[in-house]
Prior knowledge:
The chain is built from 8 helices and 4 strands. By secondary structure, the chain is α+β, with helices and mostly antiparallel strands. The chain folds into 2 domains: 2-82 and 203-210, Glutaredoxin; 89-201, Glutathione S-transferase Yfyf (Class Pi), Chain A, domain 2. It has a 4-stranded mixed beta sheet, with helices on one face. Helix 1 runs antiparallel to helix 6. The two termini are 16 Å apart.
Amino acid sequence: MTIYDWHTGPYPARVRIALAEKNLQSRTRFVSIDLWKGEHKTPEFLAKNYSGTLPVLELDDGTLIAECTAITEYLDTLDGAPTLTGSTSLEKGLIHMMSKRAELELLDAVSVYFHHATPGLGPDVELYQNAEWGFRQRDKALRGMHYFDAVLQTRPFVAGETFSMADITVIGGLIFAELVELAVPEECQALQAWYARMQERPSVKNRVTMSEPV
Length: 214
């Protein structure tokens, strides 16, 4: 398998964590696509992923799978024993619900803030910016942090009693928040404690050093 990503990217982090949780690193080749140079917007990369986003999984037969949720689903079920996306209908429903909420209310909101209300990836990549919309999404992300803080006051993981894709998505959101210096509100103590615990997981701690840029 080949993963096209950027080693410090928050969205690629989601797939890197999933790969480590499933012990698939040895079966994976990483190819770096430099976000800061806009390599994800070139015609060559757009031929692999119409959306021009990272990461992308390419299988040995040439099949291309984009979108973090889809890639994680594929990786999690390769061995017939899913641990990240649920093994029962109820687990699958709850995990996918919470993962989608993490995207909408936190990760994607931070992304819009980054691309619209900060210099983002620079003028050669950020061809259109709407600062007002970016700041609105920043505020949405902060509300999302409060939501997940309330969730984590009631259970050890985002979707219930075990680590899942939903946790990985929130981790991605907080990684992005760190990159743009958007701090978790001081009062969100449950979220802060959970994140500190997640950062001790080997899959999270070692995600950047999983491969060297090529």
